[in-house]
Amino acid sequence: MKLTKHFAYFDEGAKKEIRRATLKAVAIPGYQVPFASREVPIGRGWGTGGLQITLSLIGKKDVLKVIDQGSDESVNAVSIKKLVQSTTGVGCTDQTSAATIIQSRHRIPEVPLTKEQVIVLQVPEPEPLRSIEKSEHKTKTLHAEEDYSGAWLQLFEQIMMFGRTTTNANHPVIVNDRYVMAPSPIPRFDNEKLHQSEALILLGAGREKKIYAVPPYTSVRSLAFDDYAFLVENFKGKTCRLCGAEDVFLDELVNETTKETEYQCNDTSYCLERLNNETTEEVGEYV
Amino acid sequence: MFEQPLLQVKNVTKKYGAGCQKCMSYCSTKLIKNYCSTCRTVYACRNVSFDLYTGEILGIVGESGSGKSTLMQCLYFDVEPSSGIMYFDHPGLKEKNLFHLSAQQKRLIRHKKFGMVYQNPIHGLKMHYSAISNIGEKLIAAGDRNVAKMESIGNMLLREVEIPVFRSKEKPLHFSGGMQQRVQIAKALSNNPPILFLDEITTGLDLSVQANVLDLIKNIQMEYGVSMIVVSHDLAVIRMLADRTLVMLDGEVIEEGLTDQILEDPQHLYTQQLVYSLI
């Protein structure tokens, strides 16, 4: 494909600036690096942070996968894929293991990521202390002085009021025993995939103009009190209605005709891959 | 051998503004009250020095704007003083000027060794978090990570300050002023701090509630042997609580001594005026 404009939409200066912020973020795990969030042809809050990281990172040989809440086919994921493809000409895939860059909204794929891969997460609110402290100046000071009592207080209040922590997604984590970080609204189920991850994890918040990162093989612990352990969503005894998978993050659906609650893999490409493998086993390879 | 003071404060000065040759050199004489008309610097505290001993209650009186609250904020690290020294008699901190410690160390001392009760509970409490969480906050900040332990300490303290346990999970926003003040006291006490700062704690409370709060403070002093600095413009409060008293005017300490002595035989003109204007 012959391009008449800049490779990957941005001018070279913009990409350089984003790469610099990204490098700094990798060097200080969990620290939010401010950057000059550019205009992109999608609205702020629709994944502009992730898109900017992807565009600054992508090379001609890369293979891109974009997911939106586990789905490869949602409008947002498809639009982002189309934009990147039309400005770079790189190939896209649904298969997690085939991708080199995975941009994701609020999920980490079920297939374990490898050290050849980079996952880019879109972040709506990068500041884990924001609901406690409105002022950016003050939250910066709190991070600098390692005062995270606010983040703990939120969990404490939940335990006092409801007998357990009630975070569904975005359960705060502590990275490399230093910075408390918002892991973007991934379900608690995915928090454990951040710990000692083989793949580089980059997080971008376009509206809030912040980039932060978890480098490979870094310790990431979810905040939990001594006597209230961190618990992930429990799908015990439940399986995917399509592929029968266990130990994955399931969506709860109500069957409109039978009015029964059913469960289905949230990660659609993982589900599809399993179904394809099943068919291959039954029918044999099509020659 | 004299007793070693728990807290030594020396020459604490807080000025708002750069200061000029005129007001720096003739500090007190050329000022209009505590304001320099040339460079418009306000001297909120000027060379305040005192010692605080273990188990003692030190009173600070003075009119509005005399620098009482600024002094308290400096001591509790809310505000950074322009100059001054504070020594705290504690292993590892001896001979160290607390004002020169890192912000992180200051925060730890503040959470572990000091307790503060502000005049306005809005400053001391998170109004949208339950009373018990407010107490938990100080324990968490001091490094506690055990919910059951923190909850039992919180409930014990709330009982101590006579807040019924069934209201412990309610927000202080829904409490009366006196109850909010008592939650603040419970919070300040949560880490068994050796030093408590009380800033105008009875102002705005009605008389019977005032009496309750003062009773509580007196009990705490006798039970736990906590040293306290009590700021008030109400001489009755000072008379009831304080062993020794400082009188402040325009940012300066103008008189200090035993509370009885100051109230019965005031030396400074302003103190005389203050004592005799007591209704």
TrEMBL record, chain A:
The lineage of its organism: Bacteria, Bacillati, Bacillota, Bacilli, Bacillales. It comes from the Bacteria. Keywords: Lyase. GO terms for molecular function: 4 iron, 4 sulfur cluster binding; lyase activity. One of its GO terms (biological process) is organic phosphonate catabolic process. This is Alpha-D-ribose 1-methylphosphonate 5-phosphate C-P lyase. InterPro entries: PhnJ. Pfam families: PhnJ. The keyword Lyase applies. The keyword Lyase applies.
Automatic annotation (TrEMBL), chain B:
PANTHER family: PHOSPHONATES UTILIZATION ATP-BINDING PROTEIN PHNK-RELATED. It comes from the Bacteria. Keywords: ATP-binding, Nucleotide-binding. One of its GO terms (biological process) is organic phosphonate catabolic process. PROSITE patterns: ABC_TRANSPORTER_1, ABC_TRANSPORTER_2. CDD domains: ABC_NikE_OppD_transporters (cd03257). Residues 7-275 form the ABC transporter domain. GO terms for molecular function: ATP binding; ATP hydrolysis activity. This is Putative phosphonate transport system ATP-binding protein. The keyword Cytoplasm does not apply. It holds the Pfam family ABC_tran.
